[in-house]
Amino acid sequence: MKKTLLILFLFTCTLTVNAQSYIGYFQDNYAGVQSVLFNPASIADSRFKTDINLFSISGSVQNDLYGVKLSDVYKDGYDFDTQSKVSPSNANNAVINFDIMGPSFMFNIAPKHTIAVFTRARSVSNLRNINGNLVDQVKDGLDKASNFNFNAGNANGSSNSWGELGISYAAVLYQKDQHFLKGGITAKYLQGGTNGYIQGNNINLSYVENTTNPENGTLNSQGQLTIGTSQDWETNKDYEFDANSRGFGFDFGLVYEWRPDYDKYDLSKAKPADNNFRDLNKYKVRFGLSVTDIGSINYKDAKQDTYNVNGSITQEMIDNADDFYDFLNEHYTKVSTSKGLKTNLPTALHPDVDWNIHNKFYLNLNGDINMVSSGKLNGNGIANRVSLSPRYESRWFSFYLPVTWMEYSGTQVGSGLRVGTFFVGSGSILSNLVSKESKAADFYLGLKIPVYEKKFKDTDEDGVIDKEDSCRKVAGPAENNGCPWPDTDADGVFDKDDACAAVAGPKENKGCPWKDTDGDTLLDNVDACPAVAGPVENKGCPWPDTDGDSVLDKDDACPDVAGLVENKGCPDLDADKDGVSDKEDDCPLIAGPAENKGCPKVTKATLEQLKVEAKSIFFVTGKATLNDAKKGVTSGRLDAIKEILKNYPNAKFAINGHTDNVGNAKANQKLSEARAKAVMDLLIEKGVNPANLTSQGFGSSKPVKSNKTASGRAENRRTEIVYLGNL
After folding, report:
1. Which residues constitute the domain of residue 8?
2. Would 186 disulfide with which of 15, 251, 446, 638, CB 3.0-4.6 Å?
């Protein structure tokens, strides 16, 4: 009893519990409902459909006064007071963490909205500004102490335990290109459990040793000591649950994600199997900031005692006391109040940066910043902390290696892992294994039921996921539940689109064979007039008769003007206006008398003119070749003859050749024939119709003058054009 009372009196023994749990695990993208305790925004756009926590627990102990080799603590015969490494100062601190999370769950209520509901039992205590030199001086009792004089200052301690029922809501606030922002809020109903606090005000302690009787040495004290509790423990030693001791709390958080590869997650390009990419972590860097535990609990039956501790005590007085309150009440004066009290939650600020180094490897930097004054009466706060945690993360397995600097216990290294439904870890386990002066130890473990978002299976890659695909191994359209449409008649037209499902037919006729509606042997698909019979050569349409003259347009030379059948559908015309219709006019373009079938008659004047022109055609002597010397004259005469003959298209003319009697008669005959034919050929070349011409040679048989004279023979060597009649 003597040591217990002394330690209580001197504030050297306390349990200090804070909210710093699950180190390394909180920042895992698969932490699920636990992550909402650190930042309520973290559950939005999560990798879970739902996450159900069955049970999880965490705890820690740390201080800056005692250092131990953790493995030795559990050995038989270990003496904490003598074998630990003591590091006293004027302001020592100690902390322990204990947190139980009961049945809790989170689930997505919409693509951008998530809620979580959790139950939690917590205990938070703080002890600050304890004079460690004083603790070290009297740890074995006053009878072992020597003379000392210490200023204990304003030592401050508090402890609070309570239950929470929390509901969190998180949503995506902004999303554009690589920028993604989400926010969250948690509202908590708080049910108080127990609360106690103790605070010194300018306490000074001095000890005067009694060398004759060490047990009667004198401990002198000055100052004030305030003690508060959630119920009056002096009158009732049993704990009584008070349902009226309650309060409310809030957490707020924001998370920004930088997603440089945002185009890979474009929902407009997502296939059904992609599940809108909900199974993927999309950020390269994530920034988080949250404030937790804003609020308080009101203990309505609380009691507060303030003691004036001016006086002196001995070890014997301590030994004779039954309990701490009896000791204080017997030796010091007090002032009591029962007005109830509020205790705050351990409000803290939590920054967080998470870097996706490559693929499934991450590096996280996060911390806790205490927002509660260390000198506040009945003030509950946390120790400041910074953690750097590399991790490997996948859906069913994660591994963490946190390196943490804690305000009280310094730097520590731990590890943790998550395997499926189970997770376990410690923020200090590796330090505890190697250090001989560990000032902190912590652990956490839990069991949950995670239901992950995942990419859907699409075995046949037809865009219909397997769970909705009635034909998983054969591709088919979504409108037929992933099965291919049947094609009974194998005509390439699916039965759903085939108007003749049992008979093959072309696609353009809805799977039906083409008909011949008008029976003209042309199928309707190539019949330009499918309802009216017509010849094949006119694409199944009847030939038209535009002018109605009974001559079909295809045979009508005048399709727009009615005419005679015998005139190929044209009216009876008289183009040369000679009174002879064109159909009876042998010369429709040249006027002539009817008795000559519309052609002009060959007159004596015409024949005389032809005779004159023919006389001027000259040949080389003895040959049927035109004389080059007079070629121009001859060509002009031939042109003149041609023009005359053109006016008589139905007349027949003979080109006659004559010679003189000089030379052989047979030779002369051949020469006259050749010369006549040469003239005829030249006229034909110039455009005279060959049907209008004949040629004949007479040699010297028809002289027109006497061959005895040179002039007579010249006259006999001639070419004549003779009219033979009409064709």
Report:
1. 2-452
2. 251
